[in-house]
Amino acid sequence: KAGERKAKAERLFGLMDGFLKNDPLSLQTDILDHVEYTVARSRFSFDDFEAYQALSHSVRDRLIERWHETQQYFKRKDPKRLYFLSLEFLMGRSLSNSVINLGIRDHYADALKQLGFDFEVLAEQEGDAALGNGGLARLSACQMDSLATLDFPAWGYGLRYQYGSFRQVILDGFQHEQPDYWLNFGNPWEIERVHVSYPVKFYGTVEEDILNGQKYKIWVPGEMVEAVAYDNPIPGYGTRNTINLRLWAAKPSGQDDMESYNTGDYINAIVNRQKAETISCVLYPDDRSYQGKELRLKQHYFFVSASLQDIIRRFKEEHNNFETLPDKVALQLTDTHPSLAIAEVMRVFVDEEHLSWNRAWDIVCKIFSFTTHTIQPEALEKIPVDLLGSLLPRHLQIIYDINCNFMEELKKKIGLDYSRLSRMSIIEEEGPVKNIRMANLSVICSHTVNGVSRIHLELLKTKVFKDFYELWPQKFQYKTNGVTQRRWIVVSNPNLCALISKWLGTEAWIRNVDLLMGLREYAADADFQQEWKLVRRLNKIRLAEYIEAMSGVKVSIDAMFDVQIKRIHEYKRQLLNLIGIIHRYDCIKNMEKSDRRKVVPRVCIIGGKAAPGYEIAKKIIKLCHAVAEKINNDPGVGDLLKLVFIPDYNVSVAELVVPGSDLSQHISTAGYEASGTGNMKFLMNGCLLLATADGSTVEIIEEIGEENMFIFGAKVHEVPTLRDKGSARKPSLQFARIVRMIREGYFGFKDYFGSLCDAVEGNGDFYLLEHDFESYLEAQASADKAFVDQKRWTQMSILSTAGSGKFSTDRTIAEYAESTWGIEPCKCPF
Ligand code: 475
């Protein structure tokens, strides 16, 4: 038998021509074959989009080769693997990133040129994969890139939403949400695995059974759906390793209820089956509140159940003893969203694998690690007990049992301190409905709890998880977030990439980002500065063209491009930015004509989505448009000030905006941004930061020095006292004047903006806009001053990039691997 198999393998191998070739002729043949046989167009006539489709299939073939090799290698080596569970991944576009990581971008560009196509034009055809909302989701995507590049044996798991992040359309300055049916044009970057599917159960009852004299619980479900796998290869850079991101889609279950067909209502039976698909249909568009919705809970469990069946199946293929699971499996919980996994592993071990509770618990406590991305206690996820009990009756029992054991243990340690016991309990008894606190469950069962910046960990230890920190100080760690320099410099800023490599004399920084420090040496070099400025200018021209195409506003390239792009939130204080812009406008209006020459021209750019139900955030968007309308049409102001709102902010928009900005704002109230990662993208691209000392900015200050940034505002420890003082704080007359202008209808929509004004005046000023306003203006004035001195500005810009090395996800991931997951690289040989 074995001999036969070997002979067959050799015969087949002989038929294969090794790996796909990357010379121009092979690539061209390949692309044209895909035009004809995949896209089904004539190879003599196809448009840019069809060329993009064929091109991406040709790239996909190459990804698949490496991905197979990597998976086989991992299987053979059987290292400890990391399973990275996240309900959101903001991948953006894949084409450019893939060819760059595979090291064949230029090969493709040349091959296409000879066919009469421009690689960049085709890359623009691709839509974004936007299966996430904001920072957390983009972080997950950056971390996958680093996991692959650093050769870690990792798998990502997520959901394949049919509708990703909503498309933001602006009508009359108001945000409207439109569906993003992103799969409409096909998705060449995924591989459907019809045979990798698992049943997922919901509802029903819990019954008891006796096996070998032992009582067992059996969950008899009321509903079943099928989870089907879609695999997305994630190539590393400068390595053949290509890891897998497996996303689950819900499909009707194969196990049919024959009864309903036999009753004759065939059509209705089919229609009902089809409803299964709604589970993975749409991404929840809110990144801040948990509303205890049944569909969301269903998504979470669907995701968790399918992923764990897959992980346990893979483990059981090679191992027969669960005691060794912690040596082979690390499960990373990205926020609390996948934390039902804890109860699910207990259920599978105890009810299905018949392990004793204590053995199961022992293993569970060794495999989970948890990273929280939240900072406000009120944003922590809670699930109403009734909801959980109806959808997942067995899991509710298990969570109660975990809690009961924990409470017993805790009493032994801390005595009968009832208020502390009730704070630490997984069950929240106070309030109108009983809730399960998913964060407490995650902290109790994880061996490590991570924050996403140093300051975030401080806040976790002293506020959010104070009681737990006192109990288990060793569990708490932090890993400052990062971003991947592959996407945020190499893909999105090719000119800067080439310039850096030229002056460092190597491309090694793309894998070893600390080398960027070498640029410090040339920060004041006139030739280097000249080239640096030219690159930045070209990026600004590209951005200006985009702005004009989007909004019709013509902007001057010589102006300072001042950018704030991120989700719209009160704590991120886009309103502070707007009030500052109005103040600038007001000053220009009231200036002597002769003084206007001294004004540094600005183009203020704001972009970001508001959650559909977040009224205040939507009003901020409208205010931005109302102010822009006034300023941009004021002939007395001209190029001195422009304000533009970039609609439908997403990853590919960021790739265009970040390299083209001079100044970027990260101005959250101190203590509210867990980390922030936008700041890191701008920093890498040599854009200066105007920021509060919040989240990861505190660490950026340490890396590049406060003298190379514009830092302002209250510090974290000052915020509570300032808030308590409320209206007893010193009022700012300038601030009051601007708010009055808005309130009195200077920009129209008087009544509509009233509540926005209330939110920042007197005791209502929860996020301390008024308090920080004066120091904000001072920071802005320093930025103006620095910009006039272009030599100094360029030096600061170079030093920003040079000091950005720490903020690569390569560093973040290496830290997680070592001190949280306990995994080692597993590099596929060539
Ligand atoms: C923080 N999203 C940033 C970033 O660590 C931080 C919440 C609920 C449901 C869906 N999405 C969410 C977040 O909580 C989120 O994006 N948090 C962000 O995580 C990465 O840099 O400060 O706000």
Overview of this structure, please?
By secondary structure, the protein is an alpha/beta fold. It folds into two domains: 78-93 and 128-481 and 816-821, Rossmann fold, CATH 3.40.50.2000; 502-807, Rossmann fold (3-Layer(aba) Sandwich), CATH 3.40.50.2000. Helix content is 48%, strand content 16%. The chain is built from 33 helices and 24 strands. A nine-stranded mixed sheet has the order 7-10-11-4-1-12-13-17-18. A hairpin with a 6-residue loop joins strand 10 and strand 11 (242-252). The chain is globular and about 95 Å long. The mean pLDDT is 95. N-[oxo(pyridin-2-ylamino)acetyl]-beta-D-glucopyranosylamine binds at residues 88, 133-136, 139, 287, 373-374, 452, 481, 673-677, 695.
